[in-house]
């Protein structure tokens, strides 16, 4: 089959289309004929040599895809050859075929085309697992989403808004702030021109954010803890602003607050399967009734993976960048 190969670690130009062996469905796995995959920030890091795949995972880049079941491994129930699905992957999505544990397959939400479905697994699973399963956001609470116009942010705003929470979102340009508002953010905050701590406290009469979903890591740690409400939960999922910072435990202690950091990719198969099942139960109905929609910035052929990486790296994209195989 064809797939994206990397000529060493480096810039987007190391990526090109090459030949590679077809995957085989092991016990409990299916092979999907990939229709589309999507570019994630983690893919950029993997390409640069900083984020190796977990043990046993394909070394081909790609954490999600949509496609048609082409082979069903021993012991798999509920999926047949020809079924359409989307999937959360530990790797291998940038190829014509990929093997995936059956628990990480999800049906295509009603009303969505197969290619667009590739925009959903990573963001839906990340948002549902962190904001709802880990941080337990409730409808009467305030959520602060950093990077509201990104892939994760566009999903977090929509799901939290649909479930009744008040949503604050940060973004870097007027156009992206507008997108956050369109998707349901009650307050959109420019991370360039405004202090998000001040804005959130002012708009909540000093209460603060009950949950913060953070992509910045070290750079925002002190301010994220500052903006937390009593018994607030800060969930760090990205380190775009570095990995090391000082944490004033006395502030956490006074607020009875929590700082949690998680990674989806390294979770065991059973844990990913539980997240996928929860996403199908809670998020798919919101997609089917139109309250949550995938935000796709651009769709390119798989052969243009290098351009897709350059686009995400430029910071110009809002939402997801997809790659199609033509299948
Ligand atoms: N831990 C996990 O399991 C997990 C899973 C998935 C993703 N992630 C991480 O989550 C983060 C978001 O992923 P993504 O797919 O949404 O990436 P993305 O689409 O590339 O979005 C990146 C976001 O970062 C925002 N940003 C840049 N500088 C910022 C700043 N100073 N303050 C606030 N936001 C800033 C951008 O905002 P503008 O576009 O408005 O400038 C953009 O929304 C990444 O760090 C990714 O690695 C983690």
Total domains: 2
Named once each, the bound ligands are: NADP nicotinamide-adenine-dinucleotide phosphate
Question: What is the CATH H-level superfamily of the largest domain?
Answer: Medium-chain alcohol dehydrogenases, catalytic domain
* Overall pLDDT confidence: 97
Order of helices and strands: EEEHEEEEHEHEHEHEHEHEHHEHE
Radius of gyration: 19 Å
Query: How many strands in all?
Result: 15
Q: Specify the helix fraction band.
A: 25-40%
CATH overall fold name of the largest domain: Quinone Oxidoreductase, Chain A, domain 1
Task: Report on this structure.
The chain is α/β, with parallel strands linked by helices. It folds into 2 domains: 2-120 and 265-324, Medium-chain alcohol dehydrogenases, catalytic domain (Quinone Oxidoreductase, Chain A, domain 1, Alpha-Beta Complex), CATH 3.90.180; 124-261, NAD(P)-binding Rossmann-like Domain (Rossmann fold, 3-Layer(aba) Sandwich), CATH 3.40.50. 29% of the residues lie in helices and 26% in strands. The chain is built from 10 helices and 15 strands. Strands 3, 4, 5, 6, 7, 14 and 15 form a 7-stranded mixed β-sheet that branches. Strand 11, helix 6 and strand 12 form a beta-alpha-beta unit. Helix 2 crosses helix 8 and helix 5 (196-203) runs parallel beside helix 6. The longest helix is centred in the middle third of the chain and has 14 residues, at 121-134. It starts with a strand and ends with a strand. The model has no long low-confidence stretch (mean pLDDT 97). NADP nicotinamide-adenine-dinucleotide phosphate binds at residues 40-42, 122, 126, 146-147, 149-153, 170-172, 176, 191, 215-216, 237-238, 240, 262-264, 312, 315.
